[in-house]
Amino acid sequence: MCRWMAYTGSPVLVEDLLYVPANSLIVQSLHARLGVEPTNGDGFGFGWYDGDGTGLFRSTEPAWNDRNLRELSGHVRSPLVLAHVRASTGTPVQQTNCHPFRHGRWLWMHNGAITSFRAVKRDLALAVDPELFPDIEGSTDSELFFHLALTFGLEADPPTAVARAVGLIEEVGQRHGVPFPIQMTVATTDGETLWAFRYSSEGRSRSLFHNVDVSTLRAQYPDNPVLHRLADDARLVVSEPLGELQGAWREVPESTCVVVRPGSEELLPFGPSLLQPTS
Amino acid sequence: MCRWMAYTGSPVLVEDLLYVPANSLIVQSLHARLGVEPTNGDGFGFGWYDGDGTGLFRSTEPAWNDRNLRELSGHVRSPLVLAHVRASTGTPVQQTNCHPFRHGRWLWMHNGAITSFRAVKRDLALAVDPELFPDIEGSTDSELFFHLALTFGLEADPPTAVARAVGLIEEVGQRHGVPFPIQMTVATTDGETLWAFRYSSEGRSRSLFHNVDVSTLRAQYPDNPVLHRLADDARLVVSEPLGELQGAWREVPESTCVVVRPGSEELLPFGPSLLQPTS
Amino acid sequence: MCRWMAYTGSPVLVEDLLYVPANSLIVQSLHARLGVEPTNGDGFGFGWYDGDGTGLFRSTEPAWNDRNLRELSGHVRSPLVLAHVRASTGTPVQQTNCHPFRHGRWLWMHNGAITSFRAVKRDLALAVDPELFPDIEGSTDSELFFHLALTFGLEADPPTAVARAVGLIEEVGQRHGVPFPIQMTVATTDGETLWAFRYSSEGRSRSLFHNVDVSTLRAQYPDNPVLHRLADDARLVVSEPLGELQGAWREVPESTCVVVRPGSEELLPFGPSLLQPTS
Amino acid sequence: MCRWMAYTGSPVLVEDLLYVPANSLIVQSLHARLGVEPTNGDGFGFGWYDGDGTGLFRSTEPAWNDRNLRELSGHVRSPLVLAHVRASTGTPVQQTNCHPFRHGRWLWMHNGAITSFRAVKRDLALAVDPELFPDIEGSTDSELFFHLALTFGLEADPPTAVARAVGLIEEVGQRHGVPFPIQMTVATTDGETLWAFRYSSEGRSRSLFHNVDVSTLRAQYPDNPVLHRLADDARLVVSEPLGELQGAWREVPESTCVVVRPGSEELLPFGPSLLQPTS
Fold it and tell me: Least crowded by CB within 10 Å, which of A94, B9, B275, B278?
């Protein structure tokens, strides 16, 4: 299990996202409240966008005491940030297994798991575009899932590509007798739009929330300092709420894709797209 | 806050100490039950004795997923083992800040803190024997405490030396207006005898336990497999019980020094020894 | 490029192999003499055998200043040791990319490269036994090569299995237009016998040496202390000589497999075994 | 031994300093040409200034394969950068021993050593301002030297403060019978001015160079791409030349302090300032 957060809106200092909120992602690295596993100490990462392209900083240390993370987050400003703290489900703690993963301008991060990954790994790996296959550097289900989504056209149409990747994972899992092949919340972005997905075969998915309009909240809580650091167009999608403000967060429904652009979000139904019609 | 365990008795495989018990130290690295802080993910270490002298393995990774620790613990056998998982109270996560610390044949580990360490650090450092001063490699209160105990004769008379070191810490703390200068459980050994201390200025010390005679337990729980891995002379001193067996653990009383030799233990009253009589 | 050494004979302290010789593997981690690249600072590892099975210690730090390596090598004794220092040829510096690799009782290490690995990686991965495929944890050519050898029966007949794996690599490389698909020295063992291979498609292989009988050397150099630490049955196969003793080392010829058992060695011709007869 | 570079001038991308030059600092981390020791693989660090204050990124990995360094250097732009690759002279490889060191807005880095550091460490530590003493986090001579300079007024008058710190090191060394107590090139800055020092007790100091006016060079080498990335006001002080351009670098003379401000530099004689007149 892992925890993640994605931000899009006016440029912010990463520190204001990662350290300032009461239940920030750094706090969640030690004490997640809603997760299966309270500790997410098996590495972390964050990705961002600026005039020099896509930046990525990943490390195998626990996030809570990492000095370089503390330091960099006080200097990096970006209108779009993905951040992740990891709890390994068995794969090694190494930088290439830390999220977000990157391909060109695209970033990807995942909470959850492909069930019985050892059993299905080879079949899924064979489905990856041979051109993309050697780009897989780590050993996680999450990175392989990303490369399946890329194979199915993530860069052209993310909801469709993810639906087809999930469809394949469902099919391969069923072929291997896995009752619930996938459990996922995913965030992916090209640096402009953010797509977040909540889905699981079982219909009991990992938690996911997005924020209510900041200007509404600010009217409601005029004294809250965190809200004054955020612009009106700030949009956050998070594994769990970053604080206790009543009414600040809405749960993303099961089987949903949230499409976020600066100042707007749209919720679409999401489900696996089966590749081969079952005759 | 940290968690530790010390073993003396017939040689055991370190794995049987660190991984097999239900509430083993590795489990405590993720989920300590009795501590101030449930996660002890800021490094770990273990020290042991064999025909080649004192061995030491320390690392800054969390213990729970460290493969080298898993591996080595399956190959190292020793009649005396000290092991520690760390939760930093502010000092950097680095190997030289991991316990146990070593001097010649002696090992030392500590749970707790010298309160307001920044304020008193220099005065305490000046009290260290100038010959020993350059041996201090890290930046923790625990390592400095060890070097104070060495300065006051740890190698000749451990209870007296630790009492004098604690006396100095109390005095220096009071001089700086610190209400409760020290909080400690400590284990130290020369490879033959094990001394464990429980003390705090406040009289509310970190938890410490030692095991009840193994043969008694085995009679009581004839089906328990862990007990069959331990010889009759096995003696454990631990931050918290390694399992749920009723009657298996006794709390070490406040202000006590436990002296453990193979097959025997002795409890002595312990308190700070003031260096300068207050006139 | 990397450097490695393999030892078989009477049990030795690993320290005597890794640190004592004038041009020890630790020295070679900083200043290899015969290699393409003098620095081998991208991780290291060693594997050994004792009553508890196969042990493995691997780390991403440079070997020359690693304290845990220094420490462990002073406590581990074994009749069969494989040790490796790594210079990455592009794949990430992570523990799962450090040699030796292990499968059951078998260890494997490699110096050299599968040429144009990105181009041929997928085809080679598909040739790995599906049962073994999910065991591949890292991203190196060397680990994949090991799993090919396992696929082709390494555990039953090492020279034949390695010859078939090399044959496949040659064929796949040629299919992708790679002029010289492989460059290799390899050591592998089941804990009793050691097989070492020297081969390259180009016929200009990485250096490899084995030692001359120790008793002969001891007669020749009665004052050499290193020789007195080694028993008569000591056999070493190394990337480069561990010292300057004239007459102590023999080069392993090109296209050769050396089979070493305690006190004996045998040199066999080695070359790729083509899987499909070219008609 | 270590290698370092300091830049001041129009804001540059750190990548252009660290990776682009033919003999860049990253190249020197593997193959320094002029140093006592060609490999500087025991950690690295760089510090910079931007609108958010002083940034610092330090790591214990070798610089040559560090992905986070590669990544960050492609996103950080600064008018003043200090960068350092380390070869430990015995103190542990840990982040708190990596350069640059920081105090408030000040950065400090050092190549060389305080000779017989174990012997003189305590006397020097006692001379540090008690307020600053607990800020010392690592165990290097370089960090202690920095805190001595701060004690002697670095923030008010750097050349005088460094001269007094060096004077103390000379005196303490002589008192302990050390023939040549110090060997140093040092760079320090408050974010606006850069001070670089070259000095050694022996009068045979580590190498140090500064660049010739860029516009002159550009006229001389109109086709050199590196020169076109640098503005006319670019000033570099480096352990060794970053390339082969004839006439591009001037050696800093022995016993000299170079004071660099954007577009200008001044060379001052430098020597130890004795604290107590010898009667």
Answer: B278
